Fold this sequence. Notes:
By secondary structure, the protein is α/β, with parallel strands linked by helices. Helices cover 48% and strands 16% of the residues. The chain has 9 helices and 7 strands. The chain has helices at residues 16-27, 39-51, 66-80, 103-131, 143-146, 152-172, 190-193, 197-205, 215-226, and strands at residues 7-11, 31-36, 55-60, 85-88, 134-139, 177-184, 237-240. A 7-stranded parallel sheet has the order 3-2-1-4-5-6-7, with helices on both faces. Helix 1 links the parallel strand 1 and strand 2. Helix 3 runs parallel beside helix 4 (103-131). The mean pLDDT is 97. The site of NADP nicotinamide-adenine-dinucleotide phosphate (NAP) has 29 residues, from helix 1 and helix 7.
Amino acid sequence: xxxxxxxxxxxxxxxxxxxxxxxxxxxxxxxxxxxxxxxxxxxxxxxxxxxxxxxxxxxxxxxxxxxxxxxxxxxxxxxxxxxxxxxxxxxxxxxxxxxxxxxxxxxxxxxxxxxxxxxxxxxxxxxxxxxxxxxxxxxxxxxxxxxxxxxxxxxxxxxxxxxxxxxxxxxxxxxxxxxxxxxxxxxxxxxxxxxxxxxxxxxxxxxxxxxxxxxxxxxxxxxxxxxxxxxxxxxxxxxxxxxxxx
Length: 246
Ligand code: NAP
């Protein structure tokens, strides 16, 4: 018996931006599968969402492990009889100047941030094509649009997501499956918490809206793109960055 609610799969759904996306989509009456590596953090998310009356489950998976990621998504499709919304959100940084960057730091970032989106979308798309309705939303970054010193690996992965988004959008458009990329600016999460105060102050100067973003700023755009109101939007890169990349 297929799930009556739209089913969404959100990678990196345990913390930061992904956590806010899980909450927003569950609040929009979706059944949400939150995926991440740490099972304990996910358990807390599921409990919090359930107490808010939302329908959320966890999948413990390392998205850099392509077969494991594909199996996780295929399992969700088999269990619920559908997968309507895929949010490729999980990402990592391994910053450093490129002259000194190790191959591993380049390869790990590409595998986690870019290849995973291809693997997940390939596993998810069949169900969407069958239903003639689907949403694939890739979380990019302003770094993929304007570049960032110390982040050649990360910027390349996020720029790669833009190409992936546009090509995939063209391939899936005839089936009413949309593919878009949301490019956050500087958002307050564990990822940015580690940056020294001096860097944070410098970044703040570059943000026309004069504040760092909140995970909910990104989640609101994702929830819009995931809904019926965004049916005519595909292949787009939407910066949610306080004006940083304009
Ligand atoms: P975060 O706070 O570091 O959270 C990352 C999430 O991804 C966690 O849930 C983490 O859970 C999961 N994750 C990381 N590696 C994973 C793996 N190999 N397999 C499965 N799950 C994994 O990051 P964030 O700031 O929310 O960033 C979310 C996305 O937004 C990323 O793609 C990031 O590049 C992008 N972004 C962020 C900012 C920003 O300013 N924060 C700006 C632009 C773009 P586990 O550790 O338990 O696996």
